[in-house]
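Structural prep section.
Before we set up the soaks we want a predicted structure of the protein with iron/sulfur cluster in place, mainly to decide which crystallisation condition to try first. Input record follows.
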Amino acid sequence: MSAQSEAELLPPLQAVAIPNGAASDSTPPTIKLHKKLIRRELQDRSQWFRHGVQAAFVMLNIGLGIQFCLWTRYYETAGRTLYVNRPAGVEGWLPIAGMMNTKYLLETHSIPQIHPAAMFLFLAFLFSSLLLKKAFCSWLCPIGTLSELLWKTGERFFGRNFQLAKWLDLPLRGLKYVLLGFFAFVIGSMSAAALADFLHSPYGMVADVKMLNFFRDLGQTGIIVMVVLLALSFFIRNFWCRYLCPYGALMGLASLLSPAKIRRDAAACIDCGKCARACSANLPVDRLVQIRSVECAACMECIAVCPAENALQFSLPPRRGAEVNDRWRNLVLTPMAVTIVLACVFFGFVGYAKATGHWNTNLPHSLYLELVPNANHLSHPGM
Ligand code: SF4
Ligand code: SF4
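Run finished without errors. Recording the tokens verbatim:
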């Protein structure tokens, strides 16, 4: 009889003496506590929803990327190639412009004219983290999706992933906060006028083209860095996200305020540890009652592998005083609810920006004809 089916038959919290054949009379019998497993009735569909949203977002970004490349080529060839509209959505890849514009908005109460979409997308993702932990990282971000694909491929290949020793893991996790702190300090110390000057400079106006050029002309050092990052992501779960991404660091800090958290009902849990083993953030899910960690990306993988009914939930705070099982009943966030909330936040911000005429950066063709082909020669205004 397998350990699991044995556990299913045992009453909750019953102490069972398991005889140790080799033990002498003086050796006390090994005592194990088993809890009754009440199997989940419904199949978990969280990963089906999540992977669907991830795929949709990757496709959206590929579409935006292709359109932006065509738009850039048009100006680089002085209008000899196909013209397409500039897709403002690429500004999702300009998080620093998003932060700058957010500060500008907070100081001046007026919506910036250059890269406003970067700000609306930044605010949408930040707001989603305030509501749903770091769901942005595991549901929407294409880099997060790529990281997940790499470590899962590595796991399939080697049968396991590798974890850095705690003494190395902990300080390395701090790196992303150092990077975030640097950007926050620089942006925080700029006045609204300085921010506007920066974004209206030739460099600021084609920051998106410079970003594209960075990836198009990686050079030897860039290629080596990319290969090392990809290789590390193959062995270590979410290497980039866990140690280096300042955007994820900010989302993690915002997620501390999120009312939704992974919560474990210790009475329903059979202590199998599957959730902790599945957790891409290496969190001890099986030993906590709720996951407050900034590393939790609301991926729901822990819920997907949990065999026990109602043992793990992504839920709002339980009502005080209610019975354990009743507490969560109306407060659980199903995968569909997460998908709907993310869609409402994303399309809400984008829709508002579009409806109010604040989505696009409207610069004249003549200016783009001059700036885009020379983007590589434009230096940072502060240099
Ligand atoms: S605790 Fe669960 S939801 Fe959070 S990162 Fe780990 S597996 Fe994902
Ligand atoms: S919460 Fe974790 S340890 Fe408890 S039953 Fe579910 S997977 Fe197993």
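Observations: Residues 46-255+338-359 form one domain.
Flagged for discussion at group meeting.
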